Amino acid sequence: MAARRLLDPETEAAARIFLERAAALFPIKGSVVFGRRARGPIALTAMQTSPSS
């Protein structure tokens, strides 16, 4: 089973609202959050690029 990460409170609230509304229309068995907010904070070193030569 994959490790479960916690979302920031604002993203979690938005996801819960979306799922509640979707569940009123469709049978929902689970959910996965993709994208920048799902990945969490990015380390500064990941954002740095090597200098151009």
Q: What is the H-and-E element order?
A: HHH
Low-confidence stretches: none
Helix content: 40-55%
Class based on secondary structure composition and strand pairing: mainly alpha
Radius of gyration: 16 Å
Q: How much of the residues is beta strand, in percent?
A: under 5%
Q: How far apart, in Å, are the first and last alpha carbons?
A: 44 Å
The beta-strand count equals 0
Number of helices: 3
Compute the average pLDDT: 76
Care to describe what's here?
- The protein is mainly alpha-helical and 53 residues long.
- 43% of the residues lie in helices and 0% in strands.
- The chain has helices at 9-23, 36-39, 44-47.
- The radius of gyration is 16 Å and the shape is elongated.
Summary, kept brief:
The protein is mainly alpha-helical and 53 residues long. It has helices at 9-23, 36-39, 44-47.
